[in-house]
Amino acid sequence: MVLALVISLGVIVKVTGTEQREEKLTLENNLSPWFIVNGNDLIGEERKFGIIDDSFVNLKEEGFRADGESNKYVFYFWGEEEELVGNRYRLVATRENSNEEKVMYEQMISSNNNYEEIPSAQAQSGGRIAFDQSDAGTWLMEVYINGRVFSSFSIEVRS
To answer: Is the pTM of this model over 0.85?
Structure first.
């Protein structure tokens, strides 16, 4: 009886673990939620990487647009400052169900000089993101630092 219970529990854990892993790998089910820091709405991976709009674009209301326009954003990084500041990052977008990949932006990471706006972030960078008119859909965004994925999240690009 005890052996049967242990075997059953093992199967339940294994099946549950597999289902959870499959959900995490499904881009459609993994659209990144917004998170709030100091009253500001950001999208990305909370406590890792976040994108905030500048004063001319309301990212939360308008979203990322497939209009060919290059919009300016501020990218915030959370982590060990000495592992972030002075390194280059690369923001890469990969279209859902495709191998289509775009390098969105590449830049040096700086100390967080907008401390009053996002005080918990250790580092930041300005950047631009543009999606062409044919780019509507879901995209996986990956932030690379020193050739390794630092953060990943997904976004919806609206037409």
So the answer is: no
Query: Do residues 157 and 136 lie in contact, with contact meaning Cβ atoms separated by under 8 Å?
Result: yes
Interatomic CA distance for residues 92 and 139, integer angstroms: 10
pLDDT for 3-43, tens place per residue?
343 333 333 333 333 333 233 334 445 678 899 999 999 99
- List residues bridging with 133 in a β-sheet: none
| CB count in 10 Å sphere of residue 32 | 20
Spatial distance between the Cα atoms of 108 and 145, rounded to a whole number of angstroms: 10
CB neighbour list of residue 155: distance below 8 Å, 6 or more residues apart? 31, 32, 43, 63, 64, 138, 139, 141
Closest residue by Cα to residue 77 from 120, 113, 123: 123
Could you write out the DSSP letters of every residue in 45-110?
A: ETTTEEEEE-TT--HHHH-EEBSS--EEEEEEE-S-HHHHTT-EEEEEEEETTS--EEEEEEEE-E
